[in-house]
Design a protein that fits this description.
By secondary structure, this protein is of the alpha+beta class. The chain has 6 helices and 18 strands. It has helices at about 5-15, 40-60, 60-85, 235, 270-285, 305-315; strands spanning about 25, 35, 90, 100, 105-110, 120-125, 130-135, 140-150, 155, 160-165, 170-175, 180-185, 210, 215-220, 245-250, 255-260, 290-295, 295-300. This is DUF58 domain-containing protein.
Length: about 325
Amino acid sequence: MSTGATLRQRLGDRLWRTAQAEAGPIRLGQRRIYVLPSAAGWAYGGALLVMLVASINYGLSLGYALTFLLGSVALVSLIHAFRNLLHLEIRPGHAEAVFRGDSAQFAIHVHNPRPTPRWALSMKAGGGQPSVFDLAAGETATVLLDRPTTRRGWLALGRITLETRYPLGLVRAWTVLRPQLDCLVLPRPEASPPPLPPASAGDRGGMLRRSGDDDFAGLREHHYADSPRHVAWKVAARGGPLLTKQFAGIQGGELCLDWSGLGAMADDEARLARLAAWALAAHGEGRSYALQLPGSHIACGTGSAHLHAVLRALALHGGGDAR
């Protein structure tokens, strides 16, 4: 982030009092809502001023009545815009991990505790596109906010703006929030990676134990990511523990995705991209694989949970966990 952008962010945090992220729920009170005329409102006010001057110059009683009537409509519009945001409750939702370069989607829950609906609400994050929605009485809506990703690691949602121009568009009422919500940005896999490195048989005699085909090789403790098809249901029906069947394949031994094995690649991001591509390829083939990084190691495993652990380690390698 440039010096100018950092300075603007600090000034914005001080102005809107959003230096610290809020865990939620965030309830909008009177002191958190700001109200100013919109562009149409300023033009409307200018027209009223011209009408007032003309009524004074020509002594038009009906001109006074029309001017003050239209002015009262603007004041009522201001009150309605303010009340359209008052007492709304905002809670941080979740954000699924994405690859670098894709748009991160943050879910924000907005609850209307009042017995009256809220109309024409708009929420946006940073320079993203606004999401427009309505809220019925007592309803909770989930708003998805997009943010571009340019680097791996944790991406904070940052400041968001919730606003409304209801009912006539003459007044803009808004509030600035900073929900505590982060998204994990994974390294983008290499587009055309080489084939997977050869597996090491090690002490398994060249046989890879995995959930798959071929011969039955025994039972092991059940893991969350195991397929229900391989659960030993007969053992569970007899009151035994939940176990998973193992099968001996013939695809070689354990596959280790080793950082040090990519010595020819000088760029760390290129290494992470290749390891991410290999992890996805091994997962797609049902292979059991491990990950070796400088200072960390993930043992052999399979399944979606293991893949997520590997990609998370790659995303946070080398200080990517700084929030």
